[in-house]
Amino acid sequence: MAIEVRIPTILRTYTDGAKAVEGNGDTLADLFADLDSRHNGIRERIVDGEQLRRFVNVYLNDEDVRFLDGISTKLSDGDNVTILPAVAGGMR
């Protein structure tokens, strides 16, 4: 099962600069474990324990996984996963 994962600039150091990588897994948790096996350290930047880190947004086919089943969200062949760091700050 091939799943395209879009990697934000801040995490591309783990993927040797690749903007997108392929991964496998039945759930997002499985996918992140698979990615970590080839891109060591990336999982801990996305997941804290058994949930997504607070300031990381993950989308499955353009739908926020926090409104699905979080890292337990089921995946299908051909899905697209996008990882986006939350953006905050600015001037008052």
From TrEMBL:
State the Pfam families in the record: ThiS
- Sorted alphabetically, which InterPro entries does this protein's record hold? Beta-grasp_dom_sf, Mopterin_synth/thiamin_S_b, Sulfur_Carrier/Prot_Modifier, ThiS/MoaD-like
Top-level taxon: Bacteria
Q: Which Gene3D superfamilies match?
A: 3.10.20.30
Extract the SUPFAM superfamilies matched here.
Answer: MoaD/ThiS
Put simply, this protein is called Thiamine biosynthesis protein ThiS
